[in-house]
Amino acid sequence: MTPSAPKSRLKHLLKVTREYFTEWAVAGTVIALTGFAPDHWVADLFKHLAIPESLRDGWLRAIDFRLGLVAVGIAIISWDVLRRSGLERQVALAGGGAAPNSAPEIGRTAGDHAVGDAATPALSDKPSIAVMPFENMSGDPEQEYFADGMVEEIITTLSYWRWFPVIARNSTFAYKRKPKNATEIGRELGASYLVEGGVRRIGNRVRITAQLTEVSTGRQLWADRFERDLDSVFSLQEEIAECVVVNIEPEIHQAERQRVQRTRPENLGAWDYSLKALSLLERMNRASHEEARGLLEKSVALDPHSAYAWSMLALCHYHEGILGWKKDRASALKASLQAAEQAVQNDDRDWLGHALRGMGLLWTERDFATALEEQERAVSLNPSAPLARHCLACVFEFSRRPAEAIPHIDALLRLDPHYRFASLAHADVSLCQFLLDQPEAAWSAAVKAVRLQTGNVRARQRLVAALSALGRAEEARAAAAELIRLQPDFGIDYIDTTYPFQAADDRLRFVEALQRAGLLSN
Q1: pLDDT 10s digits, 1-53
Q2: Which of 60, 75, 353, 429 sits in a 20 to 30 Å window from 263, CA-based?
Q3: Residues 6+ apart with CB under 8 A from 146
Q4: By C-alpha distance, which of 18, 23, 113, 110 is closest to 307?
Q5: DSSP assignment string, 26-47
Q6: Which residues of the chain form CATH 1.25.40.10?
Q7: Which residues contact 207 (CB under 8 A, 6 or more apart)?
Q8: Whether CATH 1.10.10.10 fits 263-381
Q9: Looking at the domain that runs over 384-522, which CATH code has it been given?
Q10: 3-state SS, residue 225
Q11: DSSP alpha helices (H): ranges in 303-401?
């Protein structure tokens, strides 16, 4: 058994204690135990109570006072158990089904705020996920703690996203070592997707397998395995949980989009419109964003309390502003800020809302300090979200700290090699390298960005600047001509609106590099 095993078991014990020993249960236990107090304690208590001597000498002595205390304590505990059982049954009804012996609970985030609380739609409004107990395949019962801890870490990491309700550990662990198929378990828990897996440890190496199953079809959407050295149990569990969650999140979105495509238009809800919009946003072109904006406006009209829909609308406005797809770029960026603020108002733990609020404050008000605070808040709320780290890098990029931005972009691309907005991320690396007087690295990153998305005008702007800085004048002019073909209205006003440089010399260097290639002459 590793030295971390006792710590992990203590962590599980404390978790169970918090879940089952409520204030009422503790009060009932204290009262019941008081009934076993010695005789002289009870006598002293009577002396201090303002009870007439005639009563104290009469009927009060005729009953066993301590037995009454025990009965009251047990009654309180019993009432608390029944009360909590009733609440769990209500949650089960919200989920559309319940296990035979336990009602599913909605999972909680690290801050103990329910994922399905008033700030987010109810469990039935979105597809829920159940992370089942991982199988201990090591043949060593002492390794059970590691498998259980792995599941808890995945549940916590999934809960950070706040895009899907997560069934609580209490409910899923009721199925431990019980042979049932995914469809049956999902129906009983009210879950749309199941995460299952196993853990095998050999010496100081550990292999973890995981798979994602769609309950309605029994189809396996994703599966992978991870092998690592077991140097630190907790850091390893955290790393693998992030890898699992980052991989399954887009798979669930894709499966949900396919479901929406099969849904009749008149039956679409707010969540469905948001899903269709996300698919359009990923295409990264003007027409798809215009269509996505219309869908998201329908979504917030149907459910004005959806932080997810408002955050997606903020992202849509933001892209339209910085990529020059709206004629009035300033108003698009202002609309992005307003939508992000509405998302945060609806749910203060919505990480994407905080991230886009920070971007809005940076682009519209040049409030660098508050923008950084918002990005750090977003990353703390969801450390596994690549987009949160990307937004944090953007603040560093324009705040005279480009060297601090690059590690965050490198980390998010390692975390998610298929990152939705990878072209924009490489374009940001290019600008950072340009500001660090590394034109060769800036050119290399810009080429990657253009290769990933040929219509990314931000990438082409940085490509022109890098070629100009390298002295490759003819290539820079050719790249500038292609940029103008894609973005005919590119001018100094665009730079001032969408490049919020804190340092005037950073802006000047970038503008001069573009001007040497024949741009910004007017």
Answers
A1: 444 445 444 544 454 454 455 666 677 677 767 666 665 565 665 555 555 55
A2: 353
A3: 5, 8, 136, 199, 201, 206, 233, 237
A4: 113
A5: HHHHHHHHHTT--HHHHHHHHH
A6: 263-381, 384-522
A7: 199, 200, 201, 225, 226, 227
A8: no
A9: 1.25.40.10
A10: strand
A11: 307-322, 329-346, 351-365, 368-381, 386-398
